[in-house]
Structures are given as structure tokens and as C-alpha cells.
Amino acid sequence: MIEKVQHMTVGRIMTSFILQAYSEVYTDVRFDDYVGVALRPLARDMAGRCLAGPGALFSVGEALIASRTIFASSPQKAALVPGWLKTRRTAPSRSRC
Predict the structure, then answer these.
(1) Which of 14, 41, 55, 69 shows its CA 20 to 30 Å from the CA of 32?
(2) Residues 73, 86, 46, 62: what is their CA dihedral angle, to the nearest 10 degrees?
């Protein structure tokens, strides 16, 4: 699913949140395995910023710079395969806002 929303600005922002959260909780998911070297600073910045408030405009700008996708490789790799994710525990909710 996250691969299909890469054409949308909000999809690239949400993908950065998903990848950051999963890489912090699950040892087999590495942020750098999915995000290209050139876009890592932008993606990490988007993932670290709250969606509420004026800072969100920076995330929109970074997502526009990222253009079509933030992925360097397919999210269908082992750790992010949707069927495999269903068997995982739910990650604890942590708000950064």
C-alpha cells in the first residue's frame, strides 16, 4: 500500500513516519535499506516533524522535493511484506507532538 501512495505528497510524508517508526521498534527493519542516500535527510526530517502547525509546511516542501518516491528499494522486501506484518505485535504508540 505505501508503495502505491508515493505519487502523492502526503503519501511520501506518511511513508517517512511509517519507516521511521518501524525501524525504531523492529530490529529487522532498517530505514536506510528502504530510503535512498540522497533522500535520507529529507525523509528523516519529515518523520521527525509533527504534522500539526506551521512546521508541517516544511514537510510538504520536502515531500515535493522528493518527487515521485522516497524508496530506493521496494517496500515488498521481507520485513515490510504486508502478510508478514500481520503476524507482528502492534508497535507502541508514541506521539512526537
Answers:
(1) 55
(2) 50
Residue by residue, DSSP assigns 38-87 as GGHHHHHHHHTS-SSSTTHHHHHHHHHHHTT-SBSS-TTSGGG-HHHHTT
| Chain-centre distance for alpha carbon 80 | 12
Whole-model pTM: value is 0.71
Give strand pairing partners of 35: 71
Which amino acid makes up residue 65?
Answer: I
Amino acid at residue number 63: A
Pull the grid cell for residue 67.
518527487
pLDDT in tens, 31-75: 888 888 888 998 899 889 888 888 888 888 888 888 778 777 766
**C-alpha to C-alpha distance for 50 and 4, rounded to whole angstroms:** 23
Which residue is listed with cell 535520507?
40
